[in-house]
TrEMBL record:
Domain of life: Eukaryota
Domain called UDENN: residue spans: 54-599
Organism listed in the record: Phoxinus phoxinus
Entry's Gene Ontology cellular component terms: cytosol; membrane; trans-Golgi network
Source organism phylogeny: Eukaryota, Metazoa, Chordata, Craniata, Vertebrata
Protein name: DENN domain-containing protein 5A
Main location: membrane
Protein family membership: Belongs to the RAB6IP1 family.
Length: 1288
């Protein structure tokens, strides 16, 4: 992609380089490779022998000399230096020949190999390299005899080995061992590797020619290099000296301007390149077809998803060019987003330690073709996507969300591939040599057995492979009515007949396939983010202060954006919005107000989004999950065709240079050392090089083009690109230079700083979201976080912890570094405490005297135990993998507010940490570790239910204790009590409680947050009256304790005669633990005015005045309204708002009690008595047939119907319980305001209430009715426990 290459360059190529064997310095073993093998070998020095293939006794010395790597040198580069792109000798040398020099004899294959590479500078801009590696005969006698000597030494060593008693070969040995060799005589064993005999064999060594260019014109560069190589190997010398061609490509061939094509001359034929205009997708010149053939469509899409979510990606192949093609293709498909992290498509052997990097990366690792995946030891795999390109398979991290509309997307891309005669499945026959595009009409497929296509449906070919996705695709196709039989797999002959394409058909096809696939991908983002601008938060302050506070700023309204999205998109989108690439994209948008400013990708994307908005008549903010296919493929194809049919520019032809006679001759078969004097400087008279202003070609497009290269001239922006964009990502690419220990230390130090910064940002973000949400419940601000979003943030915290725990790891065990550390800790702890203590459920005190103690101590908090929490996780059979266990453990610790404390305890075992981690690891940097734990401690300020809400099906032990009143101890109580516990997820059913202990422990499926307890007794025995203070319930895993206050009698003839009550619970927060930070106010409570006036006189029931009562009703209703304004997944318990402390039932109780005439001595009168009398009155009026308004009769019938139903229920609930039930049902059916109106007019009210009663004040009753009417718009669903036994 044309991201950020140097805008000063207007030449096609900046440098021409040759690398190879420096005969002066002779054969030097490649120290870097050797060092890397040494590093790998020492990695496992503590007895656990590593499986790293190349760690076999240090590859370089056990290998036969022809298989060893030797140092390659940059032999020459022309010109010496270019101001806008300083020559980086180390990087170029490493990447031209990533494995160093290799030797061959005449018996080996010696085909030239082409590969490209990329050098990322510190400012994020890129330079491309294109290298052709071929073999030349070694003419130096010294080198040949040195090789012979090495062979003698090697054979002697091998002979010694053979004559020692045989030991079984280590299973790690990667070399194939033919079975017959074991028994064969020792000599044939010696010739197991190709040998070299100076008298008989010819020795060849690798050499490389390379172009360094500002833009990636891969096909053109390949042609230039292949023709140059052909010139030295062909029997006929080329028409001009080689210098002329190299000079021409360096100095006389300009970059084609945007939207134009250019033709220049190679040694034997013309070379074409074309560049997209500023309104098209950025330049991309790698064969996307190869990626689909190697990996298959399904895998490409999964890899694409991983890249978008910034998961660590490791590509693995024995072909350098494949690594580059896959990496560049995936990043190109991300348009308009750009990969922001470490990007090293070819990782030189000497930089293997970089796989330790605890940051997102996209790297390519070269395999030697003999090892399988199991031999590869990777530092961290918890969040790694591993792509084995040559074997067409991909390993994905757990919990990877699906890309939105995945099936329809696959269907659309399949159609594109099929139109080019490609199967959407990986094609194992695909190799470098034969990745020629076979274009055929669907009729020809029958004959094409090679491609696995059978006659009939083009999709059949790969349906045979029983791929589930494809089966689903077939079903989808049937539903949508697309007939694949008639699928228009048309041959593309759409070009105008009179226009002749200048490049060959094959190349044209590649261009077409590339642009089609890219357009389909780009269209997904334009559809998904068509209204993104609405949600961009423009900064209120000036740019300078915005830059300095960039870390703390929110730049996109994620919650509102997500609330507009179709449900199935959320798992993917909520994670994608948290990525660095998305943040950078939005930052870019904020910085570029006008079109002139915008960088190329953003401008193209915005223009496409505008087009969609104009086309779509639907309201732009309403998202549908309707799949919209890509519509602008045709015009994009046309643009490319037009450029290739009519070449816009032709460069100067190569010509003789001013060289002395005899210069420029060379020996056939050898690429010569070119004349540096003629190549070191360019022409002085060239019209486009001379101008100080940009070239005349470029004048017209200057402005556009300037922005196309991500080149920002003002310093502020430059600083911003560095600072803001690299939030938490301090490195784009490792320094490709000699690896002194100090360089490695410095790199690791950067990682440690980066991890700490990322931890600070993550904790802050999570707290702001969470606090923001609780602040809303306290009546401030707007709600912002959704369940999906909270899950995303916690998942990304788990990922960060995994990366911290795998940084600097000595020995790798299992896929999760954190869980592996925990297991080591558990093992060493259990060895130390071999005593049987600590096995029973900790913290429950079995003491019969306990009931006399205070209610709050009834359930002492669970003992804090890291090991116990691990055991809980180990006992959950649903969690199968180490990564899953680590994540569950983190969630549980967060919910228990123990994460920081547990990790501190884990890291306090210094011996263990030393054993597991290298000196430079994050976990061994004391200051950073302290700060990190301190950041995590801040999570204790908020309540998370991230364990309870996620593991909904696991079994959990609960412990219930009933606490009778201390004043009237229940010691004489004879009846048998029972309870039934309900939570947000389920309820238990009736559980009998032993009456002597009044406590019970039971196990059942996760109930979620607890909401209510129904409790009662069977009224048996002599003394069946019972005054209960409260019930306590504790979750045995999370330690959450709920208190269900009661304070009422259960029994016939006392209180309201109730034998059962429904109690509403609230989470009790532990304040005793000084280590914890301040606790948050409990969830769901609005600390309104009520608290103030209820505390006036705690013992006598306070008499509230009408103002306070109105306020109470207002607050209760307000709580319910807020409840319904939250996203569904975020709503707490509605029961608490209806029946809890200061809920709706309590508020209406105050209304009815106000001015209620005080009864005569000893006789308690309840509101229910008043309601029953009113019911009798209404029924008599109804029967007396007095002419009444139809509406009034309707309300009366409803009221009487509900009263009768509640009175006839088989449950033994008392009068107050019945009143509660009536209020709940009235709220559910939106009848409360009608009933208040009825009762206010009813004559019974006049009898039973004082004159100053609220119910007799018309204006107050009317305002009460208005407030209750606001409930009409909500669909209230009651918890089953509230309406059991009522059939309405």
């Amino acid at each position: 992609m044309s991201t950020g290459f140097s805008s000063s360059s207007c030449r096609f190529a900046d440098y021409f380089v040759t690398c190879g064997l420096d005969t002066e310095s002779g054969l030097e073993p490649d120290e870097l490779s050797a060092l890397c093998q040494y590093i790998q070998a020492t990695r496992f020095s503590d007895g656990a022998r590593g499986k790293l293939a190349s760690a076999d006794e240090g590859e370089n010395f056990e290998q036969s000399p022809l298989r060893r790597t030797f140092k390659s040198k940059v032999l020459a580069h022309y010109p010496d230096n270019v101001e806008w792109n300083p020559f980086d000798q180390d990087a170029v040398g490493m990447l031209c020949m990533p494995k160093g020099l290799s030797f061959r004899t005449q018996t080996d294959t010696r085909d030239p190999q082409f590969h490209s590479f990329i050098i990322t500078r510190e400012d994020g801009s890129r330079t491309y390299g294109f290298a052709l590696t071929f073999f030349e005969e070694v003419t130096s006698k010294q080198i040949c005899s040195a090789m012979q000597t090495l062979y003698h030494m090697h054979n002697a060593e091998q002979y010694d080995i053979l004559h020692t008693p045989p030991t079984p070969r280590s299973p790690e040995d990667p070399r194939p061992t033919p079975h017959h060799l074991h028994a064969a005589p020792s000599l044939s064993r010696l010739q197991r590797f190709n040998s070299y005999d100076i008298s008989r064999d010819t020795l060849f060594v690798s050499k490389c020619i390379c172009l360094i260019t500002p833009m990636a014109f891969a096909k053109a560069c390949r042609k230039v290099l292949e023709q140059l190589h052909q010139a030295v190997t062909s029997p006929q010398p080329p028409p001009l000296p080689l210098e002329s061609y190299v000079y021409n490509v360096l100095y006389e061939v300009p970059l084609p301007p945007a939207g134009r094509s250019l033709k220049f001359s190679g040694v034997y034929g013309p070379v074409l390149c074309q560049r997209p205009s500023t309104s098209e997708l950025p330049l991309f010149d790698f064969p996307m077809q190869e990626v689909f053939e190697l990996l298959g469509l399904e895998n490409v899409l999964q890899l694409f998803t991983c890249a978008l979510l910034e998961i660590q990606i490791l590509l693995y192949s024995q072909h350098y060019q494949r690594l580059m093609t896959v990496a560049e293709s995936i990043t190109a498909l991300m348009f308009p987003f750009q990969w922001q992290h470490v990007y090293v498509p070819i990782l030189p052997a000497s930089l293997l330690h970089f796989l330790d990097a605890p940051v997102p990366y996209l790297m390519g690792l070269h395999s030697n073709g003999q090892d399988d995946r199991t031999k590869l030891e990777l530092p961290q795999e918890a969040n790694l996507c591993f792509v084995d390109i040559d074997n067409h398979f991909i390993e994905l991290p757990e919990d990877l969300p699906q890309f939105p509309n995945k099936l329809e997307f696959i269907q659309e891309i399949s159609e594109v591939l099929l139109a080019f005669g490609m199967s959407p499945e990986a094609n194992p026959q695909c190799s470098e040599g034969q990745s020629k595009l076979r274009g055929f009409r669907s009729g020809d497929t029958a004959s094409d057995k090679r491609n696995g296509n059978l006659a009939g449906s083009p999709l059949n070919s790969y349906l045979l492979r029983e791929n589930q996705t494809i089966a689903r695709l077939q079903a989808l196709v049937k539903r949508t009515g697309v007939s694949l039989e008639k699928l228009d797999v048309k041959e593309d002959t759409s070009t105008n007949k009179d226009l002749k394409v200048q490049c060959d058909e094959d190349e044209m096809k590649k261009h077409r396939l590339n642009i089609r696939v890219r357009e389909v991908f780009a269209n997904r983002f334009t559809q998904m983010f068509s209204d993104y601008e609405v949600f961009v938060i423009q900064p209120s302050q000036d740019k300078e202060s915005w830059f300095s506070n960039r870390d703390q700023m929110q730049n996109f309204d994620k919650a509102s954006f997500l609330s507009d999205q179709p449900e199935p998109y959320l798992p993917f989108l909520s994670r994608f919005l948290e990525t660095q690439m998305f943040a950078s994209f939005i930052d870019c948008k904020i910085l570029c107000h006008d079109d002139e400013d915008k960088e190329h990708t953003l401008r193209v994307f915005d223009s496409r989004v505008d087009k969609i908005r104009m086309l779509n008549v639907r309201t732009p903010t309403l998202r549908t999950s309707m799949y919209q296919k890509c519509t602008n493929i045709e015009e994009s194809e046309k643009a490319i065709e037009m450029r290739l049919c009519k070449i816009d520019h032709t460069a100067l032809h190569p010509h003789l240079l001013d060289m002395k006679i005899g210069q420029g001759r060379y020996e056939p078969g050898f690429f010569p050392r070119l004349q540096s004097d003629v190549l070191s400087t360019g022409p002085t008279s060239n019209k486009w090089a001379k101008r100080s202003a940009p070239a005349q070609w470029r004048r017209r497009d200057r402005q556009k083009q300037h922005t196309e290269h991500l080149y920002l001239d003002n310093d502020q922006r430059e600083k911003y690109i560095q600072e803001a964009r690299n939030l938490g990502t301090t490195l784009r690419q490792p320094k490709l230079s000699n690896l002194s220990p100090s360089v490695i230390a410095q790199t690791n130090w950067k990682f440690v700083e980066g991890l700490l910064k990322e931890c600070r940002n993550k904790t802050k973000r999570m707290l702001v979201e969470k606090m923001g949400r609780e602040a809303v419940e306290l009546g401030h601000g707007e709600v912002s976080i959704t369940g999906v979003e909270e899950n995303t943030l916690i998942a990304s915290l788990c990922d960060l912890l995994e990366r911290i725990w795998s940084h600097g790891l000595q020995v790798k065990q299992g896929k999760s570094a954190l869980w592996s550390h925990l297991l080591h800790y558990q093992e060493s702890k259990e060895k130390r405490d071999a005593t049987p203590a600590g096995l029973g459920p900790p913290g429950i005190i079995h003491d019969t005297e306990r009931r006399k103690s205070d209610a709050s101590c009834a359930l002492p908090p669970l003992k804090v135990s890291l090991i116990q929490d691990m055991r809980h996780i180990q006992n959950i059979s649903e969690i199968k993998t180490d990564v899953g266990k680590a994540r569950a453990w983190v969630r549980l610790s967060m919910e228990k507010k123990l994460l920081s404390r547990h990790l501190k305890q884990l890291l306090s075992d210094h011996e263990l940490t030393k054993k597991l981690y290298k000196r430079y690891a994050f976990l061994r940097c004391d200051d950073e570790k302290e700060q990190f734990l301190y950041h995590l401690l801040s999570f204790n300020a908020v309540d998370y239910f991230c364990f309870t809400n996620v593991f909904t099906t696991i079994m959990i032990p609960y412990h219930v204790v009933i606490i009778p009143s201390k004043k009237l101890g229940g010691s004489m109580f004879t009846a048998n009590p029972w309870v039934c516990v309900s939570g947000e997820l389920a309820e238990t059913g009736v559980l009998q409680v032993p009456k002597h202990t009044l406590e019970i422990t039971f196990e059942c499926q996760n109930l979620g947050k607890l909401t209510t307890i129904q409790m009662g007794h069977d009224n048996s025995g002599l003394y069946a009256k019972w005054l209960v203070e409260c019930v306590m319930v504790r979750n045995g895993i999370t330690g959450h304790t709920y208190k269900f206050p009661c304070g009422r009698w259960l029994g016939k003839g006392v209180d309201d005669g109730s034998l059962e009550r429904i109690l509403v619970g609230e989470l009790v927060t532990n304040t005793e633990n000084e280590e914890r930070m301040c606790r948050t106010p409990p969830m769901q409570q609005s600390p309104g005015m009520m608290r103030r006036f209820v505390t006036i006189s705690p013992n006598s029931k306070p008499k509230l005045n009408t103002g306070q009562i109105q306020e109470g009703v207002g607050e209760a209703i307000n709580g319910i309204v807020k409840h319904f304004h939250k996203p569904e997944k975020e709503r707490g318990s509605l029961t608490l708002l209806l029946c809890g402390e200061y809920g709706l039932v309590w508020a209406l109780e105050q209304v009815f009690q106000h001015g209620f005439k005080s009864p005569r001595l000893f006789k308690n009168v309840f509101i229910w008595d008043f309601l029953e009398k009113s019911q009798v009155y209404f029924e008599s009026v109804e029967q007396s047939q007095m002419t009444q308004d139809e509406n009034w009769l309707m309300r009366v019938r409803h009221f009487c119907h509900f009263m009768r139903a509640i009175n006839s229920t088989p449950r033994n609930i008392g009068k107050d319980g019945k009143f509660q039930m009536l209020v709940c049902l009235g709220a559910r059916d939106h009848l409360l305001h009608h009933w208040i109106a009825l009762l206010a007019e009813c004559p019974i009210t006049a009898q039973m209430y004082e004159d100053m009663a609220l119910l007799k004040d018309h204006s107050l009753v009317n305002s009460l009715i208005r407030v209750l009417q606001t409930l009409q718009e909500f669909n209230i669903t009651l918890e089953a426990s509230l309406v059991k036994g009522i059939g309405i």
